[in-house]
Amino acid sequence: MSFSPYNRLRGAIIGAGYFSQFQYEAWTRIPEVEIVAASNRTVERAEEKCGQYGISRAYKDWREMIETEKPDFVDIITPPPTHLEICRYLAERNIHMICQKPLAPSYEESEALAKIAGNTEARFMVHENFRWQPWYRKVKELLNDGTLGDLFSIYFLARMGRGRLLRVISDRPSRSLVKPTHFTPNTMSTEQKVSASEVIFHYFKEKIKSGALQPGDPLPSERTLQKQLGVSRFSLREGLARLNAIGVIDTQHGKTTRVSQGVNTDSLKNVFLPFQSHADTQSRSDLYEARMVLEAELASLAAKRRTAKDIEGLRLNLEQAEASIGDENIFGSLDLEFHERIANAAGNRFFKQMHAVIRDQLEPVMKLHANAEDQRRMILRKHTELFNAIEDRNPAEARQMARDHLGVFKTHYT
Predict the structure, then answer these.
(1) Between β-strands 176-178 and 164-170, what pairing exists: parallel, antiparallel or unpaired?
(2) Is 19 helix (H, G, I), strand (E, B) or coil?
(3) Which residues, 6+ apart, have CB-to-CB distance to 31 below 8 Å?
(4) DSSP assignment of 103-149, as one string?
(5) Hey, which end of the chain has fewer CB within 10 Å, N or C?
(6) Cβ atoms within 10 A of the Cβ of 207, count?
(7) Alpha-carbon distance 382 to 206, whole Å?
(8) How buried is residue 53: exposed, middle or buried, by Cβ count under 10 Å (0-12/13-18/19+)?
(9) What kind of architecture, by CATH, is found in domain 9-127?
């Protein structure tokens, strides 16, 4: 069937949250489709999307939109707990639907949705764009051409946003099919699992203590450090950046990286003093109080000073976090990165150094935050609320959102 402007499919969209922008924009690139209406419980957001993407009408009530517009299909971009009700409503009217992932908050609701889909003439699809990502296409190609042989199962690990295949391992004993191109502390084996900052800290502490490195001395080359420390280039650069942020080393673009002037064993120990007692209840309580004060002010300053580039970076982080919701390690790293981006956006180098000092102390706490999927979804929701306040340049709201976010997990610090 050939399409013309007179027989295009008429679609409607339910939802206008942060991630909906990707669907709204994508529909504009499909000439056979016209989005005629959008709805959102906060109708102002639906009106904003309509203005941005040339959609005629906005609704607060999605049911009213369906009955009034009678669309050929509906794109459902709402939280999982709403999917069953909406899909049932559309199925009863034989309206085609494409539903945002995850499909449902429970296995039981997923089964109910599958049953609804099987009992309607309407098409039911789940929005899953990842199948078109280059790493999945490459895995599919390797499977189709027989490169990997007959597999019983496959394990795949990727660093989101970089488009790079990291690791594909079958369940055949001691047989790595594709070696990782790079890894971070979170993707190392259990035996290797140690933060890059900790490895690099001990390296410099011993070198300075022994006198092998003096203030002002140049650092060895990256290749030499990688070999000596047993870390990847990516992890090395991440660790060096953090040491630069807290003043242990001095890195200037285009110049040799050197040990900072005035650094000695005692000062290095003092810089890392908060890292020495992860299991100390009082230390964790102190950490919570420090984060509450520091990160609330960082959020407020970020709302005042953020740039378009800061907003772009935070948006990318949120997108990657949603994509990694099923992996607690990747999500935990992105959680840390989100707060680092806010610290950078605040534009205060002293606050940035203070935040860098406590970063490693946060890692075990962040793992507690992210050890269950419902908690990861809560974190993502809180991050999105905080992002919205920063994007809107609302310092008071950003400060409160940061405090609310940290307050949810206070028990993890005691």
Answers:
(1) antiparallel
(2) coil
(3) 3, 8
(4) --SSHHHHHHHHHHHHT-SS-EEEE-GGGGSHHHHHHHHHHHTTTT-
(5) N
(6) 16
(7) 41
(8) middle
(9) 3-Layer(aba) Sandwich (3.40)
Q: Which sequence spans correspond to the domains of the chain? A: 9-127, 132-181, 198-413
H helix count then E strand count, the chain:
16, 11
Q: How far apart are CA 47 and CA 56, in angstroms?
A: 9
Tokens of 37: 């209406």
Burial of residue 256 (number of CB atoms within 10 Å: 0-12, 13-18, 19+): exposed
Distance (Å) of CA 15 to CA 4, 21, 75, 96, 335: 28, 10, 9, 17, 25
Classify domain 198-413 at the CATH class level.
mainly alpha
Cis upstream peptide for 102 (omega within 30°): yes
Tokens of 99: 């539903």
Percent of the chain as helix, strand, coil, to the nearest 5? 55, 10, 30
pLDDT in tens, 36-58: 999 999 999 999 999 999 999 99
If you average pLDDT over every residue of the chain, what do you get?
78
Give pLDDT tens digits for 64-88: 999 999 999 999 999 889 999 999 9
One-letter amino acid at 16 equals A
Instruction: State pLDDT tens for residues 1-35.
Output: 444 445 789 999 999 987 888 889 889 888 899 99
Q: What angle do CA 173, 179, 182 make, to 5 degrees?
A: 135
| pTM for the whole structure | 0.41
